[in-house]
Amino acid sequence: MKIGDLAKRTGLSTHTLRYYERIGLLPYADRDRSGQRDFDASILTWIAFLGRLKTTGMPIRDMLRYAALRDDGDATGPARRQMLEVHREQVRTQIAELQECLLVLDTKIAGYAGGEQRTKENDARPNTSRKPLRSRSAGPVTH
User: How far is 67 from 50, CA to CA, in rounded Å?
Assistant: First the structure.
């Protein structure tokens, strides 16, 4: 499959695919007689997996490490599993934090839907009745 077709099927730009190939996230593609990249369709599964890692916040350096381990074969299975287990825990932590944020948003939305103008705990305004240290009407500041 040509790089343009791969881009259409994956939703990635040709620039991104070339970049991934250049840095080692994608294996180098075979070239046809005219020198154009010719990717095997099996690359789609790998690219989808990389997309999941990216979506879950795995840094490219870690994806590169995983890809290098993958290229080294079955003997690296335990190391790859450990990498994914560590990343899974990071994702779980992130999901828990996002669920807490979602709960706050749901509470605020429910408060507005109930006709309240402001919720008490999460929408408190700072006390602005205090005067600033230097009043604007005090005249120009000289140094």
Answer: 9
